[in-house]
Amino acid sequence: MGTILKGMSRVRWHELTHAYGSAAEVPGRLSRVAWGDDETSASALSDLGLWLGELAVFDATVEAVPYLWDLAVTDSVTSRPGVIKLLQTILEHTNTPKIEVQRAAHRAVLEGRSVAEVLAHDEDAAVQAAACDLVAAIASHVCESCRPA
């Protein structure tokens, strides 16, 4: 399986939360995105979207972002464009009860700017389009939580 999702087992997911409670199932969904067929990967990514970014961002979101970047650059992952779109959703989310969590989630996405720039030149047109959108979102990102104190 190589180094994809390396270190994921060291995260104490059961102590983290997502939109619907415990984040204990997040590693399983990340693994399904990584190694699943098209249908399995898409279903797992849909769950992750609901859990980590569509409603708000959570402490589990912050921990998951590096693994989402890992998935975005792995050619064998069938849902790479969707992973990149989830990263953009996380970056654009501004409705969180905990501003420090939002800041950490945004920073985790922003730290991948150079990766997004490389993906914007990917051979896969769908990956390229999603990455170009993400690069634009990163370049124009301004929110209250990310402003220096």
What does this structure look like?
With 149 residues, this protein is mainly α. It has one domain. The chain contains seven helices and two strands, in the order ββααααααα. The chain has a two-stranded antiparallel sheet with strand order 1-2. β1 and β2 form a beta hairpin. α1 runs antiparallel to α2, α2 packs parallel to α4 and α3 packs parallel to α5. The longest helix is centred in the N-terminal third of the chain and has 17 residues. It is globular. The mean pLDDT is 92.
Q: Report strand order across the widest sheet.
A: 1-2
Give me the secondary-structure category: mainly alpha
Domains (count): 1
Q: In angstroms, what separates the terminal alpha carbons?
A: 42 Å
Q: Which sequence of SSEs, written as H and E, runs from N to C?
A: EEHHHHHHH
What's the shape?
globular
Approximate strand percentage:
under 5%
What's the total count of β strands? 2
Weakly predicted, low-confidence segments: none
| Helical stretch tally | 7
The average pLDDT value, as a whole number, equals 92
Main sheet properties: 2 strands, antiparallel
Helix content: 55-70%
Radius of gyration, in Å, reads: 14 Å
